[in-house]
Design brief:
Layout: H1 11-17, E1 19-22, H2 36-46, H3 52-68, E2 74-79, E3 84-90, E4 95-101, E5 104-117, H4 123-128, H5 140-149, E6 151-152, H6 170-191, H7 195-208, E7 212-215, E8 226-229, E9 238-240
Antiparallel strand pairs: 1-5, 2-3, 3-5, 4-5, 5-6, 7-8, 8-9
């Protein structure tokens, strides 16, 4: 699993460009750093404020991306905008390619082959994929479920990046990890609402803003699911749709 930037903001770009990528701004080409110790030294020089634990963790990510991943390995990245996991196969060795992906200079070429909707995955697998770590290995049961539910995509290219090296304390890392998991859990729940519950959900924030909101009756409503008025009399009416 290679994250497509913090929050997945680069997912569509890496899928379009057929790769996965890491940031590590300022470190330079990994090709000359052939050992884990060499990577640790380069990261220590570039990010002197990092703790030994942070340095070791970051170097481990860089080493796995640079050396451990091989051609033919399966790779996954997630696009939170579409709630799709993109599944592909690594087709290239490590490259230092500044400018190929926004903010990410270290890439591996990928042939994207399949898509898996987060909504069809079991709760156990969804929870295991909630981590904000840039790069981690999927368990066999996770990838096995991907294989069972994946759908082939037509004519994809290469793609997928990872998030830039950011200096978080351990408590900040735990907080961001839990926040990411919580956001995905909430989206999971919302996506399972029936149409009527979705209309009531749309009315709730309008009421929280002080508006008088009323869900329209079931039946022909000309696309108006929620009627909201600032004054409660309808003299200054607002219309909101949950569709």
């Amino acid at each position: 699993m290679v994250r497509a930037g913090e929050g997945g903001y680069l997912a569509s770009e890496v899928v379009e460009k057929g790769c996965v990528a890491l940031g590590f701004d300022g470190v330079g080409d990994f090709s000359t750093l052939e050992t884990l110790d060499a990577l640790k030294g380069a990261l220590r020089k570039t990010y002197p404020a990092q703790s030994k634990v942070q340095n070791a963790s970051a170097a481990g990510v860089a080493h796995r991306f640079r050396t451990v991943i091989k051609r033919g390995d399966h790779v996954v990245t997630y696009d939170p905008a579409t709630r799709l996991y993109h599944v592909g196969v690594t087709v290239g060795d490590y490259e230092y390619a500044p400018g190929h992906v926004t903010d990410y200079a270290h890439i591996r070429r990928v042939r994207w082959e399949r898509e898996v909707s987060r909504d069809v995955l079991s709760p156990d697998v969804r929870n295991s994929l909630g981590s904000t770590i840039s790069l981690f290995e999927l368990g066999e049961h996770v990838f096995g479920e991907f294989e069972r539910v994946a759908t082939r995509t037509s004519g994809s290219s290469d793609t997928s990046p990872a998030e830039p090296l950011t200096e978080y304390t351990e408590s900040e890392r735990i907080y961001r990890d839990q926040l990411s998991r919580s956001h995905e859990f909430i989206k999971d729940r919302i996506s399972r609402l029936d149409p009527r519950d979705m209309e009531n959900l749309a009315a709730a924030p309008l009421r929280a803003l002080g508006l008088r909101a009323r869900v329209t009756a079931v039946g022909p409503d000309r696309g108006r699911d929620v009627l909201a008025s600032p004054d409660g009399l309808g003299l200054q009416s607002l219309v909101s749709s949950a569709k």
